Every structure is written in C-alpha cells, then in structure tokens.
Amino acid sequence: MGSRHSLYHVLLLILCGLSALCQCSATGVEANQTAVLFVNASEASARKIPDTLFGIFFEEINHAGAGGLWAELVSNRGFEAGGPNVPSNIDPWSIIGDESSVIVSTDRSSCFDRNKVALRMQVLCDHRGTNICPDGGVGIYNPGFWGMNVEQGKSYKLVLYVRSQESINISVALTGSNGLQKLATSNIVAADISSWKKVEILLEAKGTDPNSRLELRSTTKGVIWFDQVSLMPTDTYKGHGFRQDLFGMLKDLKPAFIRFPGGCFVEGDYLRNAFRWKETIGQWEERPGHFGDVWNYWTDDGLGHFEFLQLAEDLGARPVWVFNNGRVSHHDEVDTSAILPFVQEILDGLEFARGDPTSTWGSVRAKMGHPEPFDLKYVAIGNEDCGKSKYRGNYLKFYSAIKDAYPDIRIISNCDGSSSPLDHPADLYDFHIYSSASSVFSNARHFDSTRRSGPKAFISEYAVTGNDAGKGSLLAALAEAGFLIGVEKNSEAIEMASYAPLFVNDNDRRWNPDAIVFTSSQMYGTPSYWMQHFFKESNGATLLSSSLQANPSNSLIASAITWRNSDDNNEYLRIKVVNFGTTAVALKISISGLDQNTLESSGAIKTTLTSTNVMDENSFKEPNKVSPVKAMLEKVSESMDVVLSPRSLTSFDLLRKSISSSVDTASALISSY
C-alpha cells in the first residue's frame, strides 16, 4: 500500500509540470517552480483546532485608546495631565485672548477628591466699559487628539462642571481648526453657581471638519472655574464609548479573545506610573488618570478595567487580563515577602469581573450597569518578566491564591515552555517573537517538536519588525502568514496567538509596524491586518492532514481546514498557501479522503494577498493597495492545477455539497473577508 501511494505521488509530480504549462498560459503568469500539495480530507486524520486560537492584543500604545478606540474627543479633560501641583501645564488646552483680556491658571479646588486640579479662567475684559472683549469673547479651546472629527448631522454630548461667584454667559462652540467656522453652538447661562454645577449639552453639527476644536468663551468680566470637560459622539458602539469605525475593524477579524491592557503599559517604567485597575473604574469624573511613562503620554483612563471587559463582550471575545505581578515595573521589584497586598488587589479585580452583584466588588460592577458577571477565565501574571529575580516567587503567590478562589481560571506564565518544561505550574506560557521576515517565516516550525502535553503556548505578541516591516509591508505580512500556518499545524501545542501592536494613531507612532492605522477621521489596515483575515475562520475549524512536495521547499508552506460559514451555513474546505519565494509556482492540489462528487464544481473562491513590490504598504491615499483580491474558481475537483504568484498568500475556499445555490454561496463567502 505504501509503494502504490509513493508511485501515485511521483506520477502527480510529473503531471504537475505538464498541467502547469496550460495553467500558466491561461493566467499569464510564468511559473518556474512546480509543487504538489496533498490534502487528506478524511475524518480519521483530522483534528479540531482550538476555539481560542486567533485573537487580538490591545495595548495602550500609539494612542490606541486615548485618542483612538475610546471615542472621547477632549484631551486632558480633567486638567490633571500637568500633575497634581499647581500652577500646572494645561496642554493641549490653549487660551483665546491676550493677557490684557484673560488669565488662565490652575488650582486645587475641584469637587472630585481624586482629581483636585481645576482650571481657573479670569476674564478681565467685558462687553461694556473701557476694556471691551474682542468679538466672540475670550476663553479656552481644546483641539482634542490632533483634531476632533466633527461630522455634519451628527450629535455630540458635552458634559462639564462649572462654578463662579457671578452670573455667567458662556458660549460653547465646535469650530474649525482656526476657530472661524462655527460647526455647532450653544450657551451656558446661569445665575447661582457658587458651588460646582454639572452641565450637559447636546451639540448638533451643521458642518464637517476632521480638525475641529471645542471652544468655551465669555464676554463678561469675572472668574469662572471649569473641570472635567468631556465631549463624546452619541453614535459610539451600543453607547459603550467605542469609536464605531475602529471597533468595526476589530469585529471583522472575529477575534476569539482579546488580551488587555498591555504589554509594558501594565507595568510602567516606574511603579508610581503603573496601570492600577481600581483607579480606572467608577464614574469617569472620579478617575484620576495616569501618565504612562513607558509610552510617554497621559491617559484619563476612560478606557478602564470595566470598559476592557465590556469591549471583550461586545466583540464576542474571551477576555485575557494581563496584570502586574509584583515585579511591578521596569525598574521596581517587590519582594515576595511583601507581595500579598498586590495579590489581594488582583483577587479584588477578579471579583469585580466575576463576582456576584451583591459582593463587595461585584456590586461596583453592577452599579456601573453590568449586574451579570463577565466571562473572565484567562489571566496573565506579568509581561515579559520571567528573567527577573522576584518573578517565580511572586508568580507562585498569585497562582496559588487565584487557583484557590477561582479553580477554573487558566493562568499564563511569562516563562517560555516551548523548548523545555516549565519549573512551575501553569495552564499556558507566553511566547513573543519580533524579528526579521526570514526569521519569523522560518519559525513556522518552532513548535514542531514542542510537547503536546502540559501547558499550551500563548503566542501573545508576534510581528515582523525592523527594515523588513517598514510601517507595515507585504513582506512582513507574508512572513507572519507563514508563521501562523505553522501555528495552525501545531495547534495541539498552541492555544492562542495575537499580533502586536494592534493600533497606531498616525500622529503618534511609538512603534512600527501596527495592524490598524488611523487619525481622527481616517483609518486603514496594513497588510498584516488583512493577512489575519485569512485565519479568522480557523477558530474551532477542523485541521486536515496535508503535506507539500516541492524543490526547493523552504519558500512554501500550506495548511488545509474545513470550516462552516455562518452566513450561508455551508461547509468549505480552505487551503492556504504562502509563496515566500520570488518566482511563481505551479501547484497541483490533490485531495483525497472525500466521498465521490463531494465538492461543488462552482461556487469556489480564490483569494490572494500580493502586490507588485514586496515592500509595498497601504496608506491613507491608497488604503487598499495591499489587500485581499478575490476571484471565482471555474474548475474545481479533487485534483486541481493553480498558479501561486511570487511573494503571495493565497487561499482556496472549495464548497462542499449543499442545498444552497452557488451564486448565493459565492456572495456570502466574498463578504466574509
């Protein structure tokens, strides 16, 4: 039986060269290489891929949240970014008027105990008398995060706190970047506001400008205090505060999980600036915010512990909470003898997420509008900390306490267990890879020899970096695709994988490359973002046995799965192939193990990610320069001849017999990318 099977392979290799000539002639691509992909579609050789395999990793880096996914338009809304001491820097707030007409400073008169800094505006001019205010008045304005995107016909909710010893008449406006064009206006008129007063205004935009600003002006002499000034679009996703377009790009990836909130952001460069979950819950006005000293910018923490859990729920993804392990920061380590208060803080955070609404911290969550527990079952103890002297001692304290309280929670260690067993208990171990394209591509085989028993790998951060990546190149995406095919084929040993970083505001690039690039009004996916679309149907799919015969074989990698399309309920056989080489390849696909006439002769789709130059990138001018291109496959059978473009990622979705029409099926499949 074995010799007959080998003879069959030899014959196919000979036929491949002949059939490739016809195929190449038909496509206009000259294939200088030949290869055969054998796919065994029988159930006996198949196995299920974990439901959790491909997800996303969100870190507050590159203004991913503040000025990005979190839709708050005001930057430094509480005037706290300049620090707790006064007078302080109010950047990016700016003054409208000169020193003869207005003086702006800060003091510690806020009504919020954790946010004591407020802005004091002394108006020196008036609408009558010798010192007449300039037209429109004097005041302050906020440009947001490199411009507020205000769109005609949309509504924006302004919330602010104000007080004064005199009557006030404050003009509120959304204007163009130079303050001349009025896009939306309103007035705050009040007589008795010696105590802090909360004001809410709905602004209706009459024009569009992606570089708008919020202005607060007065023409009346006196002193006015402002605090906690927030402006949010009313069309955030489900009213949960997430910017619709960016949220949609995440949703389209169908992530199985979301890891949050970092990364190095969790730790801080120093302990005093670490992310502390308790400081990020409750009313937004009460959140003190903090300076993220790893990526060097202020966050008001409107996107806090609760919002991350809500984001996971809205995405239909499993939350993976990364928390401080007591190494705490890049420069501070807490001795294991003093770690218990940090352990308790994490137990409180788990109770906040999972506790009964009558529990101490579960009741706080319930008051925030979510009485039902969140489905938090994964936590990571630290980030990239395995080599630190206190890590193992601290890790074991966290591990024991969490397992005692929540036995079902799966705990992730920072130590790599892919090459040798861990010396401590864990459910998963973290694995990061940032390297050149050739290195990432070759690491597709890294887990081939990894033990299948014991803790599973969580590849929580992978990406091509350096010159090969640029700001997001095709070359990087192809290497990463090859790596992920290896992840698929080794999914007995790997439970999760996610690209990093996820977002970058184009005005504040702290890291290159990233999956999604945006400004206040625009966005696009890099080739690495589109590459991930080829894998979004793999979660919970069935991995088929497959093997490649090619010479040379080091530039090709392939996998095969079967998956069910939720849009049309049809089952597909998907073959993915990366051609990392510089020449086209004539590929013979040979599928065995199927019942006769199992594949539909029509309704199949070929999807390709490639470009004329391997270093091509997407941009705001050409957002889809490198993106998936789809075409119908006309001839489908258990033995097929196809051509792989040089430097390409290609998938073939073959429809298995069903009652749906091929036209409807193709439409549903195309829309799934």
TrEMBL record:
Record GO biological process: L-arabinose metabolic process
Superkingdom of this protein's organism: Eukaryota
Record's protein name: non-reducing end alpha-L-arabinofuranosidase
Compartment(s) of residence: Secreted, Extracellular space, Extracellular matrix
Ranges for domain Alpha-L-arabinofuranosidase C-terminal: 460-648
InterPro entries, sorted: Alpha-L-AF_C, ASD1_cat, Galactose-bd-like_sf, GH, Glyco_hydro_b, Glycosyl_Hydrolase_51
Family: Belongs to the glycosyl hydrolase 51 family.
Keywords of this entry: Extracellular matrix, Glycoprotein, Hydrolase, Secreted, Signal
Residues making up the signal peptide according to the UniProt record: 1-26
Catalytic activity: Hydrolysis of terminal non-reducing alpha-L-arabinofuranoside residues in alpha-L-arabinosides
Record organism: Nicotiana attenuata (Coyote tobacco)
Pfam families: Alpha-L-AF_C (PF06964), ASD1_dom (PF22848)
Main location: secreted
GO MF annotations in UniProt: alpha-L-arabinofuranosidase activity
EC number: 3.2.1.55
Gene responsible for this protein: ASD1_0
